[in-house]
Sequence to fold (242 residues):
Amino acid sequence: MVRVAVVTGAARGLGRACTERFCRDGIAVLMVDNDTDALAAAVAEIEAIGGTARSVAADITSRSACAEVIGAAVAGWGRVDLLVNSAGVYPRKPVLDIGADDWRFVFDVNVLGTYFMMIEAIAVMRGQGSGHIVNVSSIDAFKAHPDNAHYAATKAAVVSLTRSLALEVAPMGIVVNSVAPGPMATEAAKQTDWYEPMVAGLPTRKPIEPGEVADLVAYLGSDANVSIVGENVVISGAGVIV
Fold:
């Protein structure tokens, strides 16, 4: 039986890396993103290398949209074995300039979107008696940086949400964890003014490669992982040791 994964933020970056890794493992992937053009291009590229992928363009801040995403996976393949919540936004602003709308925007995407996807997936996984969920947090949940207090707070919330959900759904056969990467070598990150200084500040002096994080996500989301439950796994080149 083919395993089925749903990956949000799948058009680029870590979400794309996870999709590529899963397809190499023979997993069918429903790719989710709000960028329709980038999503279509990503699906075509995945199919060109022999992967099995479909796509849904969705705004994960809407619970009904999240329900439609999970429904599409079930309609296409009959089940959902793995959910990876990789979608997120990374706004930067001095703490005294962060307004209520800024807070709502980053919270809605990074926390509510993650939560909505989780509960819709859990409804299906509970009926199956099994499933894995991997959420994407950040080392910013544990280490302060200038100009991103609101982002850091949402990523700390993702860690807490992961632990709470893991405790409640473990008896249902559902395994929930999160990963907290350091500065990843994505194309978007490389264009910023903070990327090189942040990498230089790591003890390893090396960026975190999306493929390396995807390998970790693949294990946490596999049937081989039975006992790593409710954990947040940091992958930061010793940038944060917890």
